[in-house]
Amino acid sequence: MGQNKSQAVEVPSGWFIVTGANGSIGSEVVKGLAARGYSVIMACRNAGKGRAAAARVLDEYPDAHLRVSVLDVTSGESIRAFVSGLEGERISGILNNAGAKFPEFGLTAEGVERTFAINYFGPKALTEALLPHLESGSAVVNTISLTAFLSRLSEKDFRPDRSRFGQLRTYGKSKLAMLQYTRELAARRPDLRINATDPGIVDSNMITMGRWFDPLADLLFRPICKTPSQGAIPAINAITSPATARYFSGRGSRRL
User: Among residues 63, 56, 48, 54, which one has the least CA distance to residue 18?
Assistant: First the structure.
């Protein structure tokens, strides 16, 4: 994988939004951005967990400029309220970090399959709503997974269907949809820095399958997984790089 040796961009003066900011990787990204002088809106579904995560960052970086806002990316109403609350603010970018891999088929309150709602439909809707507020040079970074490259998509996959659901299969398809959207957006908006990030396999709740073999996997597999701070590195690099249309993983990047 080719290394991206470009210098980091100048620290933006506007807010940078991180969704799922109270999670293991999200909070590490916030910490990394705070250390670099970024002002961060921590967009979290649970305000209490968001405030607790912000407090941990502030313990390490007391001068960090953070704001906690409520956002459920699976809810159109929540997305609209969140964007409305940004009126008059300067927004310099967004990291679509929130994601999930559900063990069972389920629908959101709006009738959307949950995996696609949180990994694709919600982040896409949020990004499109924010685009008019982003000035030239702002960053949009979408979280992808290696499973995207092992998947195929058809129109049927965008419609909820219990018979077509599979925990890993549906997750991979949702990430492929996000990868395709990232490529399309990079081509459509060359004035912005549109990148993808892949944290790799991280010791977090995401690798829990909700199956009988989880305890065995925890014993044998988790010790060799990346730490959340390691998993945050590609996202931080994607945000701070002047490059666009790149796929960041590990410490390097390649073309989308």
Answer: 54
H or E element that contains 15:
strand 15-19
Round to whole Å and give the CA distance between 213 and 83: 41
User: Under DSSP, is residue 183 helix (H, G, I), strand (E, B) or coil?
Assistant: helix
Query: In the sheet where 39-44 sits, what is the strand order?
Result: 65-70, 39-44, 15-19, 91-96, 134-143, 193-198, 246-249, 252-255
Domains and CATH numbers, the chain: 15-200+230-245 (3.40.50.720)
Q: What is the mean pLDDT of each run of 10 residues along the chain (256 residues)?
A: 57 94 96 97 98 97 98 98 96 97 95 98 98 96 94 95 95 97 98 95 57 47 69 96 96 95
**HSE toward the beta carbon, residue 92, CA cutoff 13 A:** 16
Summarize the chain as % helix, strand, coil (round to 5): 45, 20, 35
